[in-house]
Amino acid sequence: MPEVSANGLRFNTQVIRHGDGASDGGAPAAPRPPVVMLHGLVIDNLSSWYYTLAHPLGLVADVHLYDLRGHGRSEMPATGYTVAENVDDLVALLDHWGITEPVHLFGNSFGGVVALALAHRHPERVASLFLIEAHFAVEGWGEHMAGSLALAAFGLDEDAVQDWLAENADRKLSRVARRSERFLTETSLIDDLQAEQPIEWLAEIACPTFAMYGSESDILDRARELETKVPGCELEIVPGSSHSLLTEESNLVRERALAWIERVASPGSSGPPTVGP
Amino acid sequence: MPETVTDQAVLAELDRILAEVIGDDLLLDGPLTMTTSFDADLQLESIEFVALAEKLLETYGQQVDFVAWMAGMELDQIIALTVGDVVSFVVGSLAHA
Prior knowledge:
Strand order of the largest sheet of chain A: 1-2-4-3-5-6-7-8
CATH superfamily of chain A: Alpha/Beta hydrolase fold, catalytic domain
Distance between the termini of chain B: 9 Å
Structural class of chain A: alpha/beta
Largest interface: A-B, 34 and 28 residues
Radius of gyration of chain A: 18 Å
Number of helices of chain A: 12
Order of helices and strands of chain B: HHHHH
Number of strands of chain A: 8
Distance between the termini of chain A: 35 Å
Helix content of chain B: 55-70%
Oligomer: heterodimer
Low-confidence stretches of chain B: none
CATH topology of chain A: Rossmann fold
CATH class of chain A: Alpha Beta
CATH architecture of chain B: Orthogonal Bundle
Strand content of chain A: 15-25%
């Protein structure tokens, strides 16, 4: 069922696994690797995964999606939007889903930060990281997040929001805009994000990690930071793409994701893979 | 599920589900038809389409291979889906079930 209570909140969730329908002819299903996908901030929700990677991956893995607190159809509490609290939510949902083996995490933008933070706090629960435009706090983050720059920090600057709104017709616009405004003005989201400290533990990430960024991304410095500091991190820069890499290049990202899960989840695989994508 | 599920039956089920997912905010002049598009006509938010699909699977999930169907589509194709696309998929799946 899509609605789940975890960590004291109501979450909108989706589990996508092939074979729930009629197609598998009743044959016992082989064990499939567990995957959880974490989306980006404010105007994002689980649908960006649902429309891109969730079903292709669902053919070979058990894919778990949820709307982060405050997003999509999940509950919007007044407070609790730090990375650490988002990790608490993720742990509670892993427990709810009964996922005890290490999970393969996919994170987009802010979701990538939550994925990294779980891999740091509970390394025993994370098998691998697939990060798209992961956006984490670095030196000077607090000032960068101040005032109107708060949105720009997550690729939600005025131009990006206007472009996005222009592509979406009236009904959606009004509903999403209303919800986003409430999120930004009536919760502690901005304050919580602004208070995030630069991540100083990237070198401690122990699982295989793959990171993708667009060459035109405004946070390309994060790509270099991951490549330099996360042991064995593989980095791919996609020419001509922006922070919206997942939707701009969904076919390419889908190819990489399928190849990645085949490599890191295949029996006998251990340690960072050494073969390029 | 009987094998005689018709386009009209699935269309009616979609109509019911839409009312459930969107409620009074449903944006549609006239009846739901096979050519109604989820994006351009109904202006469904993507998260609402997800909820609609979930409810559809509650009705037909054991007979239709929705995951494989969605996996075979690109982002643009999913966004361009019409009511008729979904109805045809469900009816076709049930006919072969």
